[in-house]
Amino acid sequence: MKIGLASDHRGYKLKTQLIEKLKEEGYEIKDFGTDSEESTDYPDYAFVLGENVVNGNVDFGVAICGSGIGISIACNKVKGIRCAKVDSVKEATATRIDNDSNIIAFGEKMTFDEALELVHTFINTPTSSEEKHVRRRNKIKEYEER
3-state class of 105 per DSSP? Predict the structure, then answer.
């Protein structure tokens, strides 16, 4: 499985910790920046991550900024991305089951252990094929196509 990660300067430290651990676990990792704690603009990295998810270069994305909110908004501007800002295992599970989300976002203040648990939950939770969820996801896709 290929996982792409992106962050701004505030999420850089947590992102590098996650990359190291996920590589140890055998995941193929793509780092879409940033490469330091020098101030940057999160949309630059969100767009690259989103494009790589949509193009199939990675299976899932993980986006981190100060709060997780800004980078999630930017990710969602990429056509075909369904990014959810999550704060709990329950939310990470729900966004995969119900929404077939392909990127999760969270804030830099999350502990490493919490963030790793969210990533594991997200990438290992299958999407529901229940009719109501498929119908709702299709409505979003149809709207996005207009």
Answer: strand
Residue whose entry in the numeric block shows the structure tokens 């701004």: 8
Beta bridge partners, 132, equal none
Closest CA to 58 of 73, 69, 48: 48
- Give me the residues paired with residue 7 across strands: 64
CA distance 70 to 146: 24
CA distance 133 to 52: 25
Helix axes 12-24, 112-124, angle to 10 degrees: 60
Pairing of strands 28-31, 83-85: unpaired
Q: What is the dihedral sign for C-alpha 96, 68, 64, 139? A: positive
Q: Mean pLDDT, 10 residues at a time, over the chain (146 residues)?
A: 98 98 98 97 98 98 98 98 98 98 97 98 96 95 91
Structural Rg of the chain based on CA atoms: 14
Please compute, for residue 107, the number of CA atoms within 13 A of its CA located in the half-sphere on the CB side.
8
**Is 59 within 8 Å of 2 (Cβ atoms)?**
yes
